[in-house]
Write the structure tokens for this entry.
Amino acid sequence: MNISSLTVEQLKKKLSKGLSFQIGNFNICLTSSIPNVCIHIKHLYSEYEVLSDDVYIDFYIELCSPTLIRCYIRPQVVFSFDGYIAFKPLPLAQAGAMFEWGLNWCIANHSNQYLIIHAAVVELNGCAFVFPGAPGNGKSTLCAALVCNGWRLLSDEMTLVSIEDGLIYPVPRPTSLKNQSINIIKNYSKNAVFGEVVKDTAKGTIGHMRAPDNSVRCAHKPAQATKLIFPKYTQGAATELTALSKGKTVLRAAEQCFNYSALGSQGFETLCSLVGDVGCFEFSYSSLDEAVALFSGIAH
Amino acid sequence: MENAVNILDMCISNEFIFRPVRMQRWKSEYLIYNILTASTHLLDSISGGVFNQIYHKNISKQELIQYMMNKYDMSHLEAVQYVGDVLEKFQVINLIEIRI
């Protein structure tokens, strides 16, 4: 049963007691009585599978008001993981975004069976392209444009490389877009479905684009990386793909890993193995159409 | 060793103490991961080759100078200068310790 089969009232009721659902290899139990959270889940997670009460849960997450007074005066939301409050409260309007950021934190800090790279990863015709990048480099915008053109979304934010088999395990979730990127993608594709756009967050204006249904349905299917590409959006830049040496690629990718040091030599070996098997590039662009055409051409 | 990480355990030669590292070579690049410091270093083909020589062949500094003169057609002075610099670099990034 998917979340889409629940009515809003049923979803509210489930959420108030704990809604268990699956995202890739992770089982989440989310508890919240906040209406924003219900809307966020209904809009962006409708194709995710609801789990029965007896399955193992990786992350118990609760979103609630920090105090009774904060339900009414300048309402706030607080994120807790297994009862542990990891962050300061945020304004209530940011509850959906806080769920996404908090879940990123849960995965990044508790999944050392993977080398976790801060990178988007998409796949077409069996070719998985990994796009590592610091915030502001246009990684998510590029990822969203590719996904709107039929690429499978494995992840917008975190590439999970299995230490055991070197494959990339999907965790398809809404793509987080910031500021101008929201309207760029809204104008770019009619297929883009957004949740509530939230202003004045620490990252500016934030909008989450729903993951394609097909990507969610294929969330159990790992992929083999074929390209590792560092994107860089620069206004007016020509579309240019430049080869990067493997050594430099490892150093740059290591900077984008959440747990490279924590994994020790396993992290080094996993990253070297990944980089050894793929083509490595830097990519500068300003035109999404040209970027999509280039990568789709390579994947075909 | 195109796509397999080489495991080098901590060892001691007559002149050097080596830290335990993992090493990956791709053509002209050597990547060295120091297990003790969790730091990764990218060496060019010449300095990576030097590291490989002193680690695997257990050669002395004098033998290394001779090796550099033969392999890269360096003068004695150039080889002494280069070997001194590269060994100092290895010490600074904590890949080796030179025994006194």
Q: What stands out?
A: Residues 148 and 189 of chain A are 6 Å apart (CA to CA). Residues 114-298 of chain A form one domain.
